Structures
1.
Amino acid sequence: MAAGPRGRFGRGGVLARLVLRRFLLAIPTLFGISLVTFALVNLAPGETTGGSGGAGLRSTAVTREAAENVRRTYGLDLPVFLNFDVSDRGKRVRRSLRDLDQPATSALAERRLVAATTLALDEVVAALVRAEPSKRRVLRRILAQILLVIGEPGGRAVAQGPVDAMQRWWQGRRGTFRPAVVRAAVQRLAAGEPGADRAVRRIHRRAVPDLIARLFATDVPGERARLTQALSDITGHVVLYDPRAPRAERRSVLGQWRDWWRAEETVHRDLSGWERFLGTFTRTRYGRWLGRLSRGDFGESVYFKQRAADIIAERLPVTLALNLAALVLAYLLSVPLGVWSAVNRGRWLDRAVTTGLFVLYSLPTFWVALMVIIFLGGIEGPDLFPTSGLYSFRPQDYPAGSSLLDLLWHSVLPVFCLSYAALAVVSRYQRAGMVEVLDQDYIRTARAKGLGETRVVWKHGLRNGIIPLVNLLGLQIPYLLSGSVIVETIFDIPGLGSLTLLAIQQRDTNVLMGVISITALVTMAGLLLADLLMVWADPRISLERSSEAGS
Amino acid sequence: MSKSGWASVFGRLRRQRLTMAATGLVALLLATALGADCLASDLPIVLSYKGDLHILPNLRRPGGLRHHDNHTLRRDLASTGSGWAVYPLIPYGPNQTQPGGALDLNARPGSGEHLLGTDDVGRDVAAQLVHGARVALLVGFVAVLIYVVIGLVLGALAGYLRGPVDHLVSWGVAVMLTFPTFLLILVIQGLVSAQSLWGVMVVIGLTGWAGVSRLVRGEVLRIRALPYVEAARGLGASHVRILVHHVLPNALGPVAVAATFGMASAILVETGLSFLGFGPDAPSWGRLIAAAQVNRTSWWLTVFPGLAIFVTVLSYNFLAEGLQDALDPHHRARLPRDWTD
């Protein structure tokens, strides 16, 4: 294009397009991250064997039903990527009715239909009416059990009476399942009106979608308590909301119901055609995982009895702060060191420093951490620094202002252990970058026009010599996060790294998946940031791009 | 010759000296690893006992000596007065907890009996160090071999074929590089609990290919545009022939450097895993240091294995740097490009 290297947009426009481009390039990377973490989820042994001992039990209808529930909770009943058979309430009930005719599956189907209670009522009555008299026995038995569960007055007589009486009963009764009636009953129950729980019990599982909707819509603690009570009574999934419990626990209860509903929604509802179409993609194992990932919802931590995301959110700042401190320290020391080395390159002192840094780079982190604890933490030498945790006392026990000092005191050794390897790498990069720059013509020009050496090196030289370090900034992050596992474990710091180890020891898959996803996202964000800084720091990049785009 | 010229020659020599020293150390470690059973074992190397001559019973483990070790044999030989034995330098096995039937459940510092001390179940530290060399070198070699092969194939295909293949591979590399490698390995270990040595090597191998792949892709992209490759194409060479005979051999230099650096990192990963308790079920240096965590006052369990790891990693790193200098003297100050892996 004739517009020349700066193009139609000028440098500002080119920059904006570059930034946009970098952001767009992050999308496929995010997709890849979700695929890798999804593969990891499917590695998790606790989920593939179906929880606690489901596989080892005798395969009766009861244990098969339990195993099925576990599989549904983890979405293992769903296809991996595409679901061409999206089931909803009606479809499941009709399938169970068909299974009733097969001797191999009839026991399980009967249990399923009884468990479905009012969800199956319409189809069961219709099937009873249609069926030949000889096949009605099992259906009558199912109906009787359902009516018993929901506490229907005279239910036994209905189930055993003549078919036309049953039909008449159903004509009168079906009105209680109309959406407006159900909603009103749920509202009365939430408000705590006497007798409302009986009405809701008669609607039973048909009321679950409204109960759930109301549970997430309201923020009145008493309503939440009554709604979870009703849901637990109806579904047998007992998770109760206690208004006096700590906040984390209350959040956890709501989260558990959300998880439950995600797995059970299609059991309790009929889907529209559009929902069925979308379900081809969303009602799959990968679709579920992507959904959870995008909401930052990693489910419940088995060990902490809290939302995994909450625990991670609590611990991530600790790790980030320590790593940031280590990074700043490493850069503050290594930039002057690298420049000094480059200026004095070839002298024995430079060689000694360069070799020494290389030696530093080869030291294993956990060993260094243990050595500083042994020789600086008071085991075989002076007791200079604390070696465990971030604080000596509880926060309220500090005299004013001293807690920050104590925190700094506690972070000396961990930050040192995190930063020394970065220090070695960054200063080597800085030296290499400076060596290259100091050989450039423009530096000779600067010297020739009489500028002082300090100005030449630290102003003109450093300006370009520091550019590679910007890029390095992004690359440090995964390395630091990896180091955090070891450093935090050894120094007993409540960060993401020690959490990882704890989660592995406790087989807390949800926390592990959260940690690995979050660290990948943090790394990606860091790389993106370094990339953008690079574009800003090095005008050559945007010029290259614009001439590329213009040609 | 000018002063700075001499200085640079001196410097280069010095560097070579370091590289040579590193090579010597790696060779020594290799010898230690190969001969670990003859350096440290609970049975003698040659033994004449009750009229039978046993050659290398430490390797063959004859059934007749099942209830013996160096100490019971030494006692027997001294009391009967007949027979003789050649004992290994360190007369303990790496997993031997009761030399001569005595069980000691306290970690002991170095003494005349155990030069470098014992761990918390009475195993000799020196013997474990010698056998740990085997684990460390094996892990470094096999894990790196796995990911170099994967990286080489993917990188070569991406760089040579370009187009969609390149996009796909580059995407995979970008994704893999967003995962902190050690953390990823740790999580995988936690999920599948691959406690076998081979399991650990495979996990390290499968997570480390991205750096090599990126490196090879870049080299292949650069080389395939050179005139001599064009000449080969003009002479009618097939794609496979061009790639395998003309392009890849010239791309191997940087790969060798990356692989040598990689062996050092793989050893660090393995020892780190063992230290955290998720390493292979083998006498590893990391496992020794983990044992020191029970009681941090037993410093000899931290210092000696740590030194072994450090010296090994340092040797590999110096070797890699020497290799890099030899291959690319203009960029001698440059770093392991993929040091993050």
Note: The longest helix of chain A spans residues 402-438.
2.
Amino acid sequence: MTIYSAIFYILSIIILAATFMAITRRDVLHAVVYLIISFIATGLIFYLLGAPFLALLEIIIYAGAIMVLFLFIVMMLRLNPEDRDRETAITQWSPAVVLGGITLILAAVMVFAEPVSGTPLKAFMASPLELGRFLFQEYWFAVEIASFLLLIALVGALYLGRYEKQAKKIPTQEGP
Amino acid sequence: MIVPFGHVLSLAILLFILGAACAVAHRNLIMILIGVEIMLNAAGLAFIGASLKWQQLDGQAFVIFILTVAASEVAVGLALIVYSYRRTGSVDANRYNLLKG
């Protein structure tokens, strides 16, 4: 076992533990903080698997931008403390656990039945220059579509988030 | 020499299942969106492992598109959550019972 595989296993344990802690929290704020740890460790694994540029993007976009966006929303909305306590009854979790367990068993059988899956991967590093050249030579049209998608998402978020003077409030059964 | 491809794939699968469980079991809309984010992240991890296994850059190129989709999805999703919070005063999915379903 080389030092790289030891690093990989330690990082994967950190990722799984942090994600598990995140999804079992009742408070969204705590979940977001645990997820930041998980995403930074994922970025390190990306670096280990030969993608330094994507490791940076993972930390900047996922751990930075997206999680901070979640934090903003959590602070902006006054979440009802009643809802927090009603969250995560154990009966809610049982179908998810059963389905996840079946999927996990099938996936493990499938992954380890393949004969070549036991051989270790060769190290390989794609520099940001190579990745950029490859991206704009082979996938330039997809890059254009992705930029268009970002524009549409911007317009959609602006439209949904605009201030309405008299927003019609729909009363819910228990809510205000 | 790093780890076998099967181990990278197993990590991605475990992470995906954690995300799916989060999206299925929670009633808070923000937690459901977080579950979707975890699933997208796991898909990116699988792509990067595959890119290393076949020594091709296509997998890494696709992770960039996954990042794009995740960013736009979270922007629109959070805008929808804020909108529905303004309309109903709650982010609990169980309270959206206008149709008395």
Note: Chain B has a mean pLDDT of 87.
3.
Amino acid sequence: MSTIPVEKKVLSENQRIAASLRSRYEEQQILCQNRISSPGSGKTTLLEQTLSRFRHEERVAVLTGDLQTENDAKRLARYGFPVQQITTGGVCHLDGRMIERALERWSSDAIDLRDIDLLFIENVGNLVCPSSYDLGEEAKIVLLSVTEGEDKPLKYPSIFAKSELVVFTKIDLLPYVPFDLAQARVNARLVHPGVEIVELSCTTGEGMDEWSSWLSHRREAAMLRASAAMV
Amino acid sequence: MHEIGIANAIIEAGQTEAARRPGSKLLRIGVRVGTLSGVDNDALRFAFTALTQGTDLDTVDFEIQTCLRRNRCLDCNLEFESGIYSEPCPGCASQRTKLVGGEELDLAYVEVEEP
């Protein structure tokens, strides 16, 4: 009998694909962000609001994941940017292979990645499984709506620990729900010390400027890194 | 519930490793799962059993080692383990810490019987 040390990631195949996606994004200077939340916390609405604020010459594209239906892609396509629905058929998360295939479909539809600066991936609505799958993104963003409960970060620590930004959505509903915003901030930072937090409402527009400026800073930082890498 | 897919990846990787020693029989697979990996140990074990039952792998043992959250203090650099949530540094009481471990999902080893 002998024990053979292996020491590799269980999801090493996904890691390999994610690494290749990441180097592709870096090479073509695409900022890719992976947005994760439970179903109904406002991922698509925030994307709609974000896209509606962009000028038409902005080079943005969206991949949106769901188990079934093209509904989200239809909603998002109205803003005139390339949008592709990934229907997983029951799988509870997106993985690297699905993203790779979606990018291939784009290139056969003559959508050139070199014409894109910003790629938003809207993951399947689920706070658990998407956290295990790297999609080559520059940052994961987790959304939590105030109708859910301020203990979500404590219940689903993995995704809050891995996200660069926590967005509390639907804050216009705060007067009507027992959500304790201060406690929610504490909980998020108990899981992820120092994590950045944006609080917003897509209905009233409150907080949208903070979200936009977070995104702009992220894009600037990525550009600085890219130009430093070229020197 | 993505543990079925993960258990399947573990079984395939275990078989691949065993196949490097021709004629050997896979006895045990050991994995390391961090408390922040997003994978539930019971669900993973259930999935492993469900996938191997009634196959030629149903005698294979499955060992899960749990890895705790590890934090590094950004003020004094001390590394320390904690529960699932961050805790103040036990050395200098600073709250400024960075997560440095606890997200593992690794195939650690396989044990085989050689011919």
Note: Residues 3-19 of chain B form the longest helix (17 residues).
